[in-house]
Design goal:
Layout (H helix, E strand, L loop, with lengths): L2 H6 L2 E4 H15 L7 E5 L9 E4 L1 H17 L7 E8 L3 E8 L22 H4 L7 H11 L3 E6 L6 E8 L8 E2 L2 E2 L1
Parallel strand pairs: 2-4
Antiparallel strand pairs: 1-3, 4-5, 5-7, 6-7, 8-9
Helix pairs in contact: 2-3, 3-5
Length: about 180
């Protein structure tokens, strides 16, 4: 399969499991303490799940890119909180919050542009291409979702939200790109 055809393949992905795997990867990659990343699961009712229809590799890339940024832009040590929630029964939201450098208000929408990096001396010391969040938003939109950021400003941390359409059926079988 070509790259385009492969990214069109949609299977049932449990975002809870995917986030757990991404946290394990990041913990090893960055030599983090076991308590550096906390996962908080919210608003899940009995019999429901954090399942989406998607390409697991692309979704893993998106989650890892957000975690990577949160760790890289936390110069005083990474303390991340990942909140998994269901919104309006239709969306799975993965929100990754750090207590790092933060993002100035005017930059919040720009950080998802290709090659964009916030023009700040402390941020520019961190290695990066400016593609990570661009990829996150691109992957989210390919899956019918979106990505957006929040921050109280410089030095006050930030939260990146990954919003994806939730599989609504109980078994959540996925066939030909559509939920059945």
């Amino acid at each position: 399969l070509g790259q385009r055809a492969r990214s069109q393949v949609r299977v049932r992905v449990d975002m809870d499991e995917l986030v757990e795997e991404a946290v394990a990867t990041a913990t090893v990659r960055y030599h983090l303490d076991a308590d550096a990343i906390r996962i908080d699961r919210r608003e899940l009712h009995a019999g429901s799940s954090f399942a989406v229809a998607g390409n697991p590799e692309d979704l893993r890339t998106a989650v890892l890119n957000i975690i990577d940024n949160a760790v890289k832009y936390s110069p005083n040590g990474a303390q991340l909180t990942i909140v998994l929630s269901v919104e309006s029964d239709a969306w799975v939201m993965v929100s990754i919050a750090d207590q790092g450098l933060g993002i100035p208000q005017p930059q919040l929408k720009r950080i998802f542009r290709r090659f964009y990096r916030v023009p700040n001396r402390s941020i520019l010391r961190v290695k990066g291409t400016g593609l990570g969040l661009f990829l996150v938003r691109s992957i989210a939109r390919q899956h019918g979702g979106d990505a957006f950021a929040e921050s109280a400003g410089e030095g006050r941390g930030s939260t990146i939200h990954l919003q994806l359409p939730r599989i609504l059926t109980p078994g959540g079988a996925v066939e030909g790109g559509a939920t059945v």
